[in-house]
Amino acid sequence: MSSDTTKKGKKRKLINKLYHNFTKYKQVLVVNLENVGSNQVQEVRYALRKQKKGEMIVGKNTVVKKAISLRMEQPNPEDPDYEERKKLWSALPQLERLVGLCRGKVGLIFTQSAVFELKPIIEANKVSSVAKVGAFAPIDITIPPGPTGMDPSQISFFHALSISTKIQKGQIEITKEVKVCTQGKKVGNSEAALLAKLGIKPFQYGMEIKYVYDDGSILGPEVFNITPEEIINKFRFGVSNLAALSLSLGLPNSTSVPHMVINGFKNLASIGLETGLKFKQLDALLSGPAQSQAAPAKEVKKEVAKPKEEPKVVEEDVGLGGGMFGDDY
């Protein structure tokens, strides 16, 4: 079999796989593979397969776009694979939106799972890398003052970069903090050479989710990065605001009625306690655990009060005794 035939066979196999996946899955994650090695791709692919979270396909953008175009077209009876495609085909015009996302070095992850479950698997595998010339710095890189471990013969290199140095204990020492790279800007030859000489691998590269295609909807990081906890907290905050506003305006609804009922019962309980009026709910409240716990406290209070009353009785007895014994005395 010739190399051309092999390439065509692999291409056809990939297109068929994509064709089936576009039918099976409604959610596709577009991940960035810039500066990502083949080993990292294999590890993520294996992790997804092992945990049954999805399937990752990496191929040329032209092949992916061809598969999308083929999936959107209605099968033609003259096509050699007409019978197979006819069984799977259904109109999916929304796939057109996915074509515009297949730019640069990207991969596709077909999945039925929630994005927040996949994100740790996809983005956890990062590898340290040297600063490459022409690459955009993902973070600011600053070299602190201190020894470099380089011999004095290379001090001219630092002078050429206008870096303040001195010779200390037979090696070059940087005397002032130096900012080498700025986030979002390209790494130059001098910066890359300096970091390489110092043995610094400042960048970490790994897969990142760029977009989420969900049955025609395109979600950006500002949407798919939201966790379920954040959604619940936002919902609770909104419900609290609605309940407060409804109570202020006296509008009954599902958020304010429970508070209205509780406030109404408190008012009735206050009136009942002041006037001696009894009703079932108030009796149940007074005979509940709170009342039984309060009872011993009253008993203790009475016991403490008794010694205070005894001196008063003695004083009265002394006063009356003077009259009883007055004649004999």
Q: What this model shows, in words?
A:
The chain has 329 residues and is an alpha+beta fold. It folds into 3 domains: 10-125 and 207-224, 2-Layer Sandwich (Alpha-Beta Plaits); 141-203, Ribosomal protein L10, N-terminal fragment, domain II (Molybdopterin biosynthesis moea protein, domain 2); 241-286, no CATH class. 52% of the residues lie in helices and 15% in strands. The protein is built from 13 helices and 12 strands. The strands form 4 sheets. Strands 2-3-1-11-12 form a 5-stranded antiparallel sheet, with helices on both faces. Strands 6-8-7 form a 3-stranded antiparallel sheet. A hairpin with a 2-residue loop joins strand 11 and strand 12. Helix 1 packs across helix 3. The chain is flat, with a radius of gyration of 40 Å. The N and C termini lie far apart (143 Å). 13% of the residues are buried.
How do the strands and helices of this protein lay out in sequence?
Layout: H1 3-24, E1 27-32, H2 38-50, E2 55-57, H3 61-72, H4 82-88, H5 96-99, E3 106-111, H6 115-123, E4 126-129, E5 141-143, E6 146-147, H7 155-160, E7 165-168, E8 171-174, E9 178-181, H8 189-197, E10 203-206, E11 208-214, E12 217-219, H9 221-224, H10 228-249, H11 257-275, H12 280-286, H13 289-324
Antiparallel strand pairs: 1-3, 1-11, 2-3, 4-10, 5-9, 6-8, 7-8, 11-12
